[in-house]
Fold:
Amino acid sequence: MTDVAIVGGGVIGLSCAFELSRRGSSVTVLEREQPGFGASTVAAGMLTPSFEVELTPQSLVDLQLDSLRRYPRFVHDIEAAGGESCGYRDEGSLWVSRHRDDELELDHILRIQQERGLPARRLTGREVRALEPYVSPRAVGGLLVESDHQVDSRKLVPALRAACEAVGVDVRTRTRVAAVERSDGALELTLEHERATSSLRANQVLLAAGVWLEDGLVTPLPRIGMRPVKGQIVHLQGQPLVRHVIRNSDVYIVPREGGRLLIGATEEEQGFDMNPTAGGTLDLLRFGFEVLPGIYDLDIAEIDVGLRPTFHDHMPVLGPTTTEGIYLASGHYRGGVLLAAATAHWTAEIMLTGQVPSEIEPFSFQRFVAEQTQQEAAS
Ligand code: GLY
Structure:
C-alpha cells in the first residue's frame, strides 16, 4: 500500500512525486519505459513564457509565470536533495527578425508581452549582432527577453529521479500500468513488468502518463481526447555559436553545455510515430541556417523525436477527476518543463488539502465533462 501512486515518470510525474514525498506522503512512481521517455528528455528545456504568448490564454500565461518564479527554488531543492545538476541557465532569449514581416511580428509580440506583464526590449540588427556575433548579417532587428531561462532536460530528468529517490520515492521503471480501479475504499492498480502481472493499492492515484494517458490504460474516467503532437529536434555539435536561446516564428536554437546546439522543433500530427524524417530535418536546418549561418559547419550529433501530450484546447488538466482519489497532471503540450515547478506545487496542494485554488480552476477535468454533457444534450 502506498499513499500516492503516480502513473508516469516524466518531468511532471517526478516533480509531483518529489513534492508529495517531501510533504510526507509515501509515493510510488510507475514508468512504462525509462524516466523522461516520450517528451521530457526530448524537450528543449526552455523556460520561456514569452514564446507563444499571442496564442496563450492569460490563465496559462499566469501559471507559466508562477512556475518561472518558482524555478530557482525548485532547481535548488532538486540539486540539494539528489546532488545532480539540472543545467539551469539564465542568459535569456533573443528573437531575431530576418525581414520587414518579422519586424512587424516582433512589434506585435512586444505589444502583447507588455500587456501580459512580460518584460522585453526591442533591439536593432546591430544590437542583436553585438549580443550574438554569429547571428546572420541579414538580421534586421530583435527582441530580448532577459527573464527567459532554461534547463537541460537531459539533466533535469535524472536529477529529479535522484532527488525523488533521496527523499524515499519508489521509482519503478519498465512497469506499465494496465488498469486503475476503485475497490474496497482504495485504488487498485494492475501492473505489468517483464511479462509478469502484479497489483498495487494506493489511497490516491495521479495520472501523469503523458501521451499514454488514454492508450492501453483502463480507468473509470471518461475519455477526454489526449493526443500526441510529434516534435523533431536536430542536435548539432561543434563550436558554441550563441549564448542566448535564439528564436523566430519558424525555429528555435538552444545552446547547451559542451558545444551542443538544438534546432527545434517540428509540430506534426502523426499519432505515435517517433521516426525522424528527412523533411523535418531539412526544414529545421534551413530555418536555423537563415538565422545562424555558422551551423553549416557543425556536426549532426543526433535527431531526437518526442511526443507532446495535448488536449484540443492545448491547456493542461490539473486536479481532481470524476473518480474519487484519481487526479490528473497531464496535457502540458509544449510547456511541461516550464510548468513542472508550478504543477508540482499545486498538485501536492490539491491532493493533500482537497481544495482547488481559483488559479487552477481553468485547468479542471470538469471542463471536458461539461463539454461532453452539452454535446450530448445537443445531439
Ligand atoms: N517547448 C517547445 C516545443 O515543444 O517545441
About this structure: The two ends are 44 Å apart (CA to CA). The helical segments are 11-22, 58-82, 100-115, 125-131, 153-166, 278-291, 336-353, 366-378. Residues 44, 46, 231, 264-265, 308, 334 surround glycine (CB under 6 Å). DSSP finds eight helices and 18 strands in the chain.
